[in-house]
Write a structure and sequence with these properties.
Elements lengths: L2 H9 L1 H12 L2 H10 L14 H10 L9 H11 L12 H15 L7 H31 L1
């Protein structure tokens, strides 16, 4: 991305890091989702985002709809994965940032809005939803401990 997009990402780094860290710790939910969809679950790693965790993240923020479908989400996930040879596909943090910028383009398709503006608007919206996302993760974590 150019410097203007990088500047926007740096402004939202705390929020993006929080989203990434919470999403990479949702192993049990991701495993259940994979089984429900009759897919082979990937090996879970707290430093990477699996395809199941990616879909859970997008679902938690209500990002999947008619303008951004699950199929498009899967294509973005595969596209930004740098290690195509890996047995278990996953995204590291920098790939996650890139994927989120791509989601922003889907969510704000107007060609007259610049990419930095799209990314900023998208991340602002996610930031507003972040407290609910953190709360949801906290409730799930408490349930797992019982």
């Amino acid at each position: 991305w150019d410097d203007t997009v990088q500047d926007v990402l740096s402004v939202f780094q705390k929020e993006l890091t929080t989203i990434f860290k919470i999403s990479t710790c949702r192993d049990a939910e991701a495993q259940q989702a994979a089984k429900k969809n009759r897919k082979q679950p990937t090996t879970m790693d707290p430093n990477t985002l699996s395809p199941e965790e990616w879909r859970l993240l997008l679902t938690s923020f209500s990002l999947l709809d008619t303008t951004f479908t699950p199929r498009q989400a899967d294509v973005i996930f595969r596209h930004f994965q740098q290690d195509d040879s890996a047995k278990d596909p996953c995204l590291v943090y920098c790939e996650f940032e890139d994927a989120m910028c791509c989601v922003a383009m889907y969510k704000y398709p107007n060609p007259y809005i610049t990419l930095p503006t799209k990314v900023k608007s998208f991340l602002t919206t996610l930031s507003c939803q972040l407290p609910a996302f953190v709360e949801e993760a906290s409730v799930v974590h408490k349930r797992k401990q019982k």
